Amino acid sequence: MADGKTGTTKVLMEETRIFEPPKALAENCNAWQWAKKKGFKTEKEMRAWCGEHYLEFWDEMAKTYADWYEPYTQVMDDSEKPYFKWFIGGKINMFYNAVERHIKAGKGKRVAYHFIPEATDQPERAYTYQEIYETVNKLANGLKSLGVKKGDRISIYMPMLPETVMAMLACAKIGAIHSLVFSGFSSKGFGDRVQDCEAKVVFTADGFYRRGKPMPLKPQADEGVKDAASVKNVIVLKRTGLEVPWTEGRDVWFHELVDKQSADCATEVMDAEERLFILYTSGTTGKPKGIEHAHGGYCVGPAYTCKWVFDLNEDDIYWCTADVGWITGHSYVAYGPLCLGITSVMYEGSPDYPDFGRWYKIIQDYKVTVFYTAPTAVRMLMKQGNEWPEKFDRSSVRLLGSVGEPLNPEAYIWYRKYFGNEISPIMDTWWQTESGCHVISPLPMTPCKPGSVAYPLPGFNTTIYDEEGNEVPLGEGGNIVNPTPWPSMLRAFYKDEVRYKKEYWDMYWKVKPGTYLAGDKATRDKDGYWFVQGRIDDVLSVAGHRIANAEVESSLVAHKDVAEAAVIGKPDEIKGEAIIAFVILKEGVKTSDDLAKALKTHVRTTMGPLAIPAGVYFVDDLPKTRSGKIMRRVIKAKALGNPTGDTSALANPEAVDYIPLI
Ligand code: WT7
Fold it and tell me: Which residue numbers delimit the AMP-dependent synthetase/ligase domain (predicted)?
């Protein structure tokens, strides 16, 4: 485990504060209503039963929260582990569940999104389910007119806008597989992903707003697709009015494509296992992995957890601040709330524009009741002082959520006080791109401990194993594993079977085949409360985003002056981890501040702003194993002033001395 984090764990393990949820919420929340109906006396009893009878449980969830064209004949098939299949023979479509059925039920007038532009002089606007339904139908016809067919991949490189969700829905509707790339990624990061999934069509925008100013996006999209032979068309949303480079015959305006089409379009009937999307995430190596998700399971996981964990009902105003380009946006901005017919707030921009009061003002203006964000944002706002939240009325908030990294107790208490009026419980939800929905989390009736994600949710048998595959006792740490599958789980890596097996399933295959290795370590205290400790692989968590050390390193060594590079994460008060790079320059190249700056710019242009190293240190050598592997663990320990352990087995133990204390 990351050195230096053990200390944190110890403190967390001694956490004795317990926050009880408001009585009325605990008694009336959706999860407890269900438990009462089933005759469970305690939450513990309910969670245990749902794990033990997980197939029965998911069967009920699939029938409660999803509408099927044709019912499935079997809940789950594990005959080809680790390729689990769910809802065998069932026919379904995500678009039907997210939008179409609400229209049929006469709920078209409900608002799906209150969209708030970043610039304060632009009008805010409500998008109803009916409007989304019509636009998506037209867009789906537009995609068909471009020759898009079921199974084709479509890359979406768009900012935080309702049209981005509509692009996703249009793909789902016709059975095309969408693959979003966060618009903050560089053109290269985008291009690599387009090429990997061999996208036929790309969605982008002319630009986006940042701090009130229009910024171009189309040129990055063009640069990204220039070597992607699969791309036939680029659909461009007009957002800013910025002038854009245009490729005749390939580029199409979003509005022109939509305007020409009829609003009638039949929704494709999909097999439950057919793919809904691919989303790339970071793994141990530098190459991002394309996680595949299926229509059937995905119609169940996000909707169920929105209902149970966030307790969403039709009178809620819900706001998840994540960008749709990440999994949190897929499950908890787009599909989960839409499947339940919920009204959400969608905000285009950053929390500090025009000032640090912006988020509180949105909460006040729209009377947001359920709010979901990341610890890094909480810590950033906490640092700005209490006068910002105090200026606004936040009394509408009844439930809070957190995701991405541990919510440290200090931030927890502040978040509960200033966003949650000192009464709203915080659902600290642990999950992953791979899981598709929350896995470990409190429910609204759970007494919560700061810094803890409480327990595995109903339907999950998530536990902690030691290296041999034995369950560890309370108080001890180990690997988070799922011994049983769940509907919204990943189905595969796009075109990379070997790595799929290696990264998630090989670890316990000999002892317990079919056990999913999550890639995180955790411990449970004496009361069984879970505390997540961090990743076991070489993946950084920067402001809640996964970035592989290897990705930043390969970006650095691609620079003409760099011979070798090692990247580590340094604990950072706000971002969780800050990226620190140790660089060996090529012969004859002189170190300078300008070169350090140039390397940061280089990483920015090749990977995007999230990956910029906070520090670049030039060194003469880096400690390596005899097989030539750079020892990040040793570098990190030395740089942070921690014991480096036994370094005698290294090929060059003296290299440790070159690493400065940072
Ligand atoms: C990794 C998954 C799932 C949406 C956001 C990121 C870390 C996630 C928590 C939490 C501690 C957390 C884990 C996990 N993580 N939620 N509540 N407490 N750590 O999705 O990019 O797939 O990253 O984020 O390390 O493995 P992702």
Answer: 107-481
Q: Is residue 73 part of a domain?
A: no
Count CB atoms within 10 A of the CB of residue 570. Answer: 17
**How far is CA 503 from each of CA 283, 520, 594, rounded to the nearest angstrom?**
8, 12, 39
Tell the residue nearest (CA) to atom 1 of ligand 1: 432
- Structural domain of 585: 540-656
Tell me: pLDDT of 14 over 80: no
CATH number at residue 557: 3.30.300.30
- Of all helices (H) and strands (E), which one includes residue 77? strand 74-77
- Per-residue pLDDT tens over the stretch 495-516: 999 999 999 999 999 999 999 9
pTM score, whole prediction:
0.91
Q: Which residue among 328, 431, 535 is best mutated to probe the pocket of ligand 1, counting the most ligand atoms within 8 A of its Cβ?
A: 431
The least confident of 174-188, 538-552, 580-594 is 538-552
Q: Which atom of ligand 1 is nearest to the CA of 518?
A: 26
> What's the pLDDT band for 286 if we cut at 50, 70, 90?
low
Ligand 1: list residues with CB < 6 Å.
Answer: 281, 327-328, 403-406, 428-433, 453, 519-520, 532, 535, 546
In a domain, 595, yes or no: yes
What is the distance between the alpha carbons of residues 309 and 60, in angstroms, rounded to a whole number? 17
Ligand 1 mean position, distance from CA 544 (Å): 7
Distance in Å, CA 103 to ligand 1 centroid:
34
Q: Which of 42-46, 429-433, 623-627 has the lowest mean pLDDT?
A: 623-627
The tally of domains found in the chain comes to 1
Asked if the model's pLDDT at residue 251 lies above 60, the reply is: yes
583 lies in some domain: yes
